[in-house]
Amino acid sequence: MFAPDAFATDAYGFLTNQLGHAAFGLVATGIVAFVMRLRTGHDMRAPALLVVAVAYFLGWEAAWQTLWIAGPMDALADTFFVVCGGWIGIALWGRAGPQAAAGIAAAGSALALGVWRRRR
């Protein structure tokens, strides 16, 4: 379970995998931002995204998945989608439409490129 895979020839696998990473980023950033706000009394959405991104990359991709099993580019792509999900979430929670649109455009472009590269 959770075996590293870059889905080099599986467009659908790539799409669903990266959407899962984005969903994780959205939820994890929301939870961390909420806890940080409870502890500090201040809006902590942006710092929460940074915490989630660094913790995900170091704790999951580098330590648990050891970066090199599916390759460093897969680790960076996975982290990118975690960040995009968190970015979209904090933008929407802050009612910042243009920032949310930029996050959606970044994630959507990367998804489209990744699926296109893996088409059969």
Describe the structure.
- The protein is mainly alpha-helical and 120 residues long.
- The chain has one domain.
- The protein has four helices and no strands.
- The radius of gyration is 15 Å and the shape is flat.
- It starts with 10 loop residues before the first helix and ends with a helix.
- 28% of the residues are buried.
List keywords for this structure.
4 helices, 78% helix, flat
Note the topology.
Blueprint: H1 11-40, H2 45-64, H3 72-93, H4 97-117
Helix pairs in contact: 1-2, 1-3, 1-4, 2-3, 3-4
Shape: flat
Helix run count = 4
Helix and strand succession? HHHH
- In total, the number of strands is 0
Strand count, sense and closure of the main sheet? none
Number of domains: 1
- State the end-to-end distance: 26 Å
Which regions contain 5 or more consecutive residues with pLDDT less than 50? none
What is the radius of gyration?
15 Å
Q: What fraction, in percent, of the residue positions are helical?
A: over 70%
SSE class: mainly alpha
Briefly summarize what is shown.
With about 120 residues, the chain is mainly alpha-helical. It is built from four helices and no strands.
